[in-house]
Amino acid sequence: MAIDMFPFLEIFMPFVGLGITILCCTSLCKACHNAQEEMRRERTDTPSIFVIPFPPAEDRTHNPPRYSMTDFSSLPPPYAEVERKPELFPHPEGVPPPYTEVSLPLASTAPPPPTPPPLPRATPFRRMSYA
């Protein structure tokens, strides 16, 4: 068989196949890119920005604001005069009771001492008779 005669083909054939696949993908992508560029060059007569036509100024009932002519409002109040926003869940009125320490008898946290291993049981010897 050919693989037995040329063992290096078993190593290099996957690389050759990968190279051919990459070349095919590259040429396909380049062809798609060139077709898209050609379509973009053909439609140069249409602008890429769409302009919305507005009617003349005398026909408009609502003019957009002119920011250079707006009236300025007064300055905001000082920070010390600003009230807090009401809370959704207000805190209870009054001061909570003071903290008091409580000492509870707790169980010892030390582990119990290990139990001694069981002693081996003495087994009496039996005499076996071969009668």
Automatic annotation (TrEMBL):
Residues 122-131 have a biased composition (Low complexity). Residues 110-121 have a biased composition (Pro residues). Residues 38-70, 83-131 are annotated as: Disordered. This is Transmembrane protein 92. It comes from Synaphobranchus kaupii.
